[in-house]
Design brief:
This protein is mostly beta strands and 169 residues long. Helices cover 12% and strands 57% of the residues. It has a single domain, classed as Beta Barrel (Porin), CATH 2.40.160.20. It contains one helix and ten strands; from the N terminus they run αββββββββββ. Strands 1-3-4-5-6-7-9-10 form an eight-stranded antiparallel beta barrel.
Length: 169
């Protein structure tokens, strides 16, 4: 009985070790990431938002994509378009990196730029949250984000609560 128990324990240990080393997780090196996030129009963003105040409708649409260059580390880029109904639309771009601590807690650092009517504004964004994996290919990632303005004359620094929806493949 003792040999049978030790053999079963060895098989389970080998199986678990093999599963951890096969790089088949959602955040493994070589995987791709496509994200859509919620956000607001206070900063240039590559997210989805919709707001209406006093008959004026403001909206934004965008996506981000990334490639895992190492386990749990993705290099990302994003594009977006915002329209607040008062000025010409705003083109937004974002580049950065996202690291998943313990493959579960995403932290990100990125540079965001926005351009409207020939005027530009830029932010450095810091974000942290939790990745709730709904299966092999989908995660919901609520988080907190702080956008630090690089030009106080053109834009403000903003603290945000966001929810990201990601596809992993």
């Amino acid at each position: 009985m003792k040999k049978l128990l030790l053999s079963a324990l060895a098989i389970v240990s080998f199986t678990v070790a093999s599963a951890q080393d096969d790089n088949s997780g959602q955040t493994a090196k070589g995987k791709w990431l496509i994200e859509a996030n919620t956000g607001n129009l206070a900063t240039g963003n590559t997210s989805f938002s919709l707001a209406s105040v006093d008959g004026n409708t403001a909206w934004s649409v965008g996506l981000e994509g990334g490639y895992f260059v190492a386990d749990d580390l993705a290099v990302k880029a994003g594009l977006g378009y915002n329209d607040n109904g008062l000025t010409d639309g705003t083109f937004v771009y974002k580049i950065g990196a996202k690291y998943y601590i313990a493959s579960q807690f995403p932290v990100g650092l990125d540079f965001t730029g926005a351009s409207v009517d020939g005027n530009n504004a830029n932010w450095v964004g810091l974000q942290g949250g939790y990745a709730w994996f709904l299966g092999e290919n989908v995660s919901i990632e609520p988080g907190l984000r702080y956008n630090v303005t690089l030009d106080e004359n053109k834009a403000d620094s903003v603290f945000q609560a966001v929810i990201g929806f990601a596809l992993h493949f």
